[in-house]
Amino acid sequence: MAEKMNVESFNLDHTKVDAPYIRLAGKVEGTQDTIYKYDIRFCQPNKAHMDMPGLHSLEHMMAEFSRNHHDRVVDVSPMGCQTGFYLSLINDDDYEGVLRLVEKTLEDVLQAEEVPACNELQCGWAASHSLEGAQEIARGMLEKRNEWSTIFQTA
Ligand SMILES: [Zn+2]
């Protein structure tokens, strides 16, 4: 890559990663606290992506349910390329704990009977949701749970 970019993931060679995976993508230290940002990659870049309604519902559920398991979630937000999410935590660099947090959160998604806050009062595009789509994405990710810590292609 020619030039070092400001954004950590712009310096990541997306042709070399092996999705699904979860990796620490950034760390910002304040005066007292440190924010850890994780790249939760569901789909192989430039090979697959999540459809918007399922992705959007998954975002609502991960944002809501993850906080039932962790009290220091700063943010859960989808990538614009629709291949994954960023999860930011404050003062938590326990990688295995993050894997367990994502696992528990996705298990909640499979149990959900409705998408939280998918209405015009609480969401900016309430018509674009799919519970089934989100559950299909979550199921596929959970089936590959043992691959999450392998970030790069080995061969
Ligand atoms: Zn929404």
From TrEMBL:
Residues reported in the UniProt entry to bind Fe cation: 56, 60, 123
Gene Ontology MF: a single term: S-ribosylhomocysteine lyase activity
Enzyme class name: lyase
One Pfam family of this chain: LuxS
InterPro entries per UniProt: LuxS_sf (IPR037005), Metalloenz_LuxS/M16 (IPR011249), S-ribosylhomocysteinase (IPR003815)
Reaction(s) the record says it catalyses: S-(5-deoxy-D-ribos-5-yl)-L-homocysteine = (S)-4,5-dihydroxypentane-2,3-dione + L-homocysteine
GO biological process, one term: quorum sensing
Cofactor note (record): Binds 1 Fe cation per subunit.
Cofactor annotation: Fe cation
Enzyme Commission (EC) number: 4.4.1.21
Keyword terms of this UniProt record: Autoinducer synthesis, Iron, Lyase, Metal-binding, Quorum sensing
Family the entry assigns: Belongs to the LuxS family.
Quaternary organization: Homodimer.
Function: Involved in the synthesis of autoinducer 2 (AI-2) which is secreted by bacteria and is used to communicate both the cell density and the metabolic potential of the environment. The regulation of gene expression in response to changes in cell density is called quorum sensing. Catalyzes the transformation of S-ribosylhomocysteine (RHC) to homocysteine (HC) and 4,5-dihydroxy-2,3-pentadione (DPD).
Name of the protein this chain belongs to: S-ribosylhomocysteine lyase
UniProt source species: Alkalicoccus urumqiensis (Bacillus urumqiensis)
Underlying gene: luxS
